[in-house]
Amino acid sequence: MASIFHSGLSKDLSSILNDADDFNVIIQVGVKNNIKEYRAHSVILRARSAYFKSALSTDWITKKNGMILYNKPNITPTIFDILLKYIYTGELDLKEYQDEDILELLVASDELLLEELFDHVQDYLIKNRTTWIQKKNFDLVLNTAFKLMNCRKLQDFCLKFICIDPQPFITSENFLSLDKDILYNLLEREDLQIDEIVLWECLIKWGIKQTPGNINNDIVKWNNKNYEALKKTLGKFIPLIRFVEISPSQYYDKVRPYKAIIPNHIFKEVEEFHFKGTLQKAIILPPRVGKIKFESTIIKKKLISIIINWINKRDAKAIPDKNDLSYNFNLIYQGSKDEINNQSFINNCNMKEPILVLIKCKNSRKIFGGYTPAGFYRISKKRFNRNENNQIISSSDSFIFSFENNNDTRNMRLSHVKSHIYNIYNNNYGDFGFNFGERSLYMQDNNLYVNYDFRYGRKIKFVNTYIIEEIEAFKVVENRIDNYDMTKEMFYGIQN
Predict the structure, then answer these.
(1) Considering the domain boundaries, does residue 303 fall inside one?
(2) What's the domain count of the chain?
(3) How much of the chain exceeds pLDDT 90, in percent?
(4) Which residues contact 437 (CB under 8 A, 6 or more apart)?
(5) pLDDT tens-digit map of 98-120
(6) How far apart are CA 194 and CA 205, in angstroms?
């Protein structure tokens, strides 16, 4: 086994940087009164940086007296000091530097194609300089992150911060100057927790400001050219608005006047939604799921809207209404934390409340699950008789299901319990963690068994025995919200 002496190597390379007399590159950094020259070695620069490997090639370089001359006016000496130390020694302590310098270092490391350094600086900003980003320089960091193609982590960090409480940002003056790419990424997020009508109104204001020709804010004074210009500006953004979340009265007063800028197929579907309450083509995006309390390591959040539709006895891809968003899924059991065995599941899920179970199995991407509105609970010993039907919990609305993977919205399979049979088995004897039907889907310690029997309407695919990798159970809490402030009948009475 080879011995490794990195500390000595780092020290020696540091001395080469500071004291070498055999350098062959002179780099001039900075502009005006903030200029500094650095002496370096092309072989080290080229080995450590893909940027310098190209920049110091024979086609690019300028030589004088056998020395390579190179200018970098867009990087300050302070930042280049950090970069050279990293290039030569691989050492860096970001605690020593100001927040602004670290952000500049991120930009410079991206330009010089120092991927390892770039990733480290990005992670450091997110983990250690959160307060500086969120409270003092959010706009600066947001715009900087979206100028860097590979800065996905910092971009997502900034967008998530907006989504937690988006209204102050979206209704601010700064929003009207927001870069179109940032706006697009923000609008397409499912966790953007804002009233959709507020988002729509702010999008119109943004579009007016971004449209050449100085469109008047008073829509009454617009002509066809004004509508066409705004339609061109907002063309790719309008399909990202969740029109199904806008009430009939708001739609009539604040959306319908802009009919001319909305693509015809979208406008027709929105009208159909408000007339019939359904969307046949499903071109319009469903409501954002950010308002639903649901955190799972097994499935992605967008699948919960499918499960909610199943709970409400609707087609998986139906457009949910506002009340569909009012569920909370409170985690009551997680195998990785509470142990994967019958007794642990029973102890945590012994309740007469609606429960959703999700299961991920080892060596498989498939996801299984079941829902019971009656819960899993023990029957008192006085009433319980294993040889009688009271070992069965009445649950005519239970169902089991499967997904191909944690992102599957096409090939999922649902199986409802048949209406004349009521089968969720109680846990009095601890034979199972849970048991849907006559062992249609059941847990025995760390094993999951997927079978088919007459108590459920169809096979859910993948009949087999699996080893459970993770299992989660959620208590499903329904919080009904107020209906639209105007009924659909009243809305269409206004129209007529």
Answers:
(1) no
(2) 3
(3) 42
(4) 400, 417, 423, 453, 455, 456
(5) 999 999 999 999 999 999 999 99
(6) 16
